[in-house]
Design brief:
The protein has about 130 residues and is α+β, with helices and mostly antiparallel strands. The chain has 4 helices and 5 strands, in the order H-E-E-H-E-H-E-E-H. It has one domain: Cytidine Deaminase, domain 2. Helix 2 runs parallel beside helix 3. The chain binds zinc ion. The site of zinc ion (ZN) has 7 residues, from helix 2 and helix 3. The site of zinc ion has 7 residues, from helix 2 and helix 3.
């Protein structure tokens, strides 16, 4: 597992993407950044819609951008407010997409807007998610 300080730039980029989140309904600003296998950083912002089911999490936007960049994720960071007092980690759907693209050892870094940073590997967050062979 990588040290949290290694991901400062990734967190900074996720925080910038968070500022650009389109959240007129929830006001819950989230941004994400992926360090790709090509050593690039791609970002994603939460995007909502008046048709609420069409909202897309910042993490999946960033993971899809990683694919569009011709790479795979090696670390995923997100920055958001706390959820019910706790550090916000990716939702189940984003964890599943991350598992598909990055595998069980993908590093996930979750940072709050008040500066707490926690880190885990995907296998700890989604231990029994369906995986390709
Ligand atoms: Zn999600």
């Amino acid at each position: 597992m990588t040290d949290v300080t290694d991901h400062e730039v990734l967190i900074e980029r996720a925080a910038m993407a968070r500022e650009r989140a389109y959240v007129p309904y929830s006001g819950f600003r989230m941004g994400a950044a992926v360090l790709t296998t090509g050593e690039e950083i791609v970002v994603g912002s939460l995007v909502e819609n008046v048709s609420l089911g069409l909202a897309m999490c910042a993490e999946r936007v960033a993971l899809f951008a990683c694919v569009a960049a011709g790479a795979r994720p090696q670390a995923l960071a997100l920055v958001s407010p706390r959820t019910d007092g706790s550090v916000t980690f990716p939702c189940g759907a984003c964890l599943q997409v991350a598992l598909e693209l990055g595998g069980p050892d993908l590093v996930v870094v979750a940072a709050t807007t008040d500066g707490e940073v926690q880190q885990a590997i995907l296998a700890d967050l989604l231990p029994r998610g369906p995986r390709k062979a």
